[in-house]
Amino acid sequence: MRAVRRAIRAAYMKPDSDSLYRFVVEGCNVRGQLVYLDQSWRQLASRHDYPPVVRRILGEAVSAAALLSATIKFDGALSIQASGDGGLRLLIAQATANGTLRGLARWKGELHDAQLSHLLGNGRLVITIDPGGDGERYQGIVELQSDGLSQSLRGYFSHSEQLPTRLWLAVEEERVAGLLLQRVPEPDTEESWLDDDGLSADAWRQTVGHAETLNPTELLELSVPDLLARISDDRPVRLYRGEDWRFLCSCSREKVTEVLRALGRDDLDSLIEERRRVSVNCEFCGAEFNFDAVDVAQVFVDDHHDLQGTRH
Ligand SMILES: [Zn+2]
Questions:
Q1: Category of 208 on φ-ψ map: left (φ > 0), alpha (ψ -120 to 50) or beta
Q2: 228, 64, 262, 229: which is closest to 156 by C-alpha?
Q3: Is there a contact between 65 and 101 (Cβ–Cβ < 8 Å)?
Q4: At what angle do helices 293-311 and 253-263 cross, to 10 degrees?
Q5: pLDDT score of 149 more than 90
Q6: 103 CB contacts (<8 Å, ≥6 apart)?
Q7: How far is the CA of 251 from the centre of ligand 1 (A)?
Q8: pLDDT number for residue 105
Q9: Which own/partner pairs from 241-244 qualify as long-range (CB within 8 Å, at least 24 positions apart)?
Q10: How many A from CA of 250 to the centre of ligand 1?
Q11: How far does residue 265's CA lie from ligand 1's centre (Å)?
């Protein structure tokens, strides 16, 4: 019995790698999630030689995507995408309901430490939820705040009439971590969290206030129970082990074929003539897809069949 208890305690000493924890602070309508990405983060970040500032923002975006995807029930993918005309050209972080993550950034020139909005210049930040199956894609524009991604997302939640939500994100070489707090309605009345004088409003403010005192190292390294004790004011907390995360790309030869088909037969034929084959690399995972003259001809044979199919 004692051995079992020790094992349980040991399991809680350090957060598990590449894992998500869900929790509910009892009696005050605050719920949250903690995410820790280790190997998945290292694999994702090692695909390109990112400058430190780009790597940090990519890490924040990946942990935010994991946290946000875990707040919704769906079968698809949630992406955070930023693009602009500054040194940071493009940033994509995607998390799926199956616990897979991928992401990349494109930049130019030398970048020094600065916030997302400065790096993007004239840019925009978009959250896309692709529910999978026949569901309709949702896109929300996030207003860029000068103090970073988590602040921008906070603004997004307060403007989009969704549940009040706060995020804290921490990135280091080997691990990224994120904490999300969300204020949920009372179970019996949908609107009661709007009552700012109630216990639930105080508890929300206090929990957020305690979370504000966590420094990045604490967010990355505190054990899950210690961290929850810090933010919950000794209120009881129910803790659930959530999904595991892994780096996995959703690229495929079929998807590359679609892209080639969209380029058109003439362009592809001249590429084949010039280089004998067309080679496409996935920027997310580095996978290489090669098409020789026969493969390219096949791309358009299939296309022809599809067209005939849709005509009848
Ligand atoms: Zn890929």
A1: alpha
A2: 64
A3: yes
A4: 80
A5: yes
A6: 44, 58, 61, 62, 65, 91, 92, 93, 94, 284
A7: 4
A8: 96
A9: 241/16, 241/19, 241/20, 241/21, 242/19, 242/20, 242/21, 242/22, 242/33, 242/70, 243/19, 243/20, 243/70, 243/99, 244/16, 244/18, 244/19, 244/20, 244/99
A10: 6
A11: 24
Instruction: Please give the order of strands across the beta sheet that includes 237-244.
Output: 165-171, 176-183, 30-37, 19-25, 237-244
Ligand 1 midpoint to CA 86 (Å): 26
Q: How far is the CA of 48 from the centre of ligand 1 (A)?
A: 13
Q: Is the dihedral of CA 53, 149, 232, 242 positive or negative?
A: negative
Distance 287 CA to ligand 1 centre (A): 6
Q: ∠ CA 153-20-36 to the nearest 5 degrees?
A: 75
Q: Is pTM, for the whole model, over 0.90?
A: no
Give the Å distance between the CA of 257 and the centre of ligand 1. 14
| 99 Cα–ligand 1 center, Å | 16
* CA 166 – ligand 1 centroid, Å: 31
Using pLDDT thresholds of 50, 70 and 90, give the confidence band for residue 285.
very high
Question: How far, in Å, is the centroid of ligand 1 from the Cα of 252?
Answer: 7
- Rounded distance between C-alpha atoms, residue 116 and residue 285, angstroms: 24
H or E stretch at 202:
helix 199-212
Tell me the CA–centroid distance for residue 285 and ligand 1, in Å.
4
Stretch 198-225: mean pLDDT, rounded? 91
| Residue 96 CA from chain centroid, whole number | 8
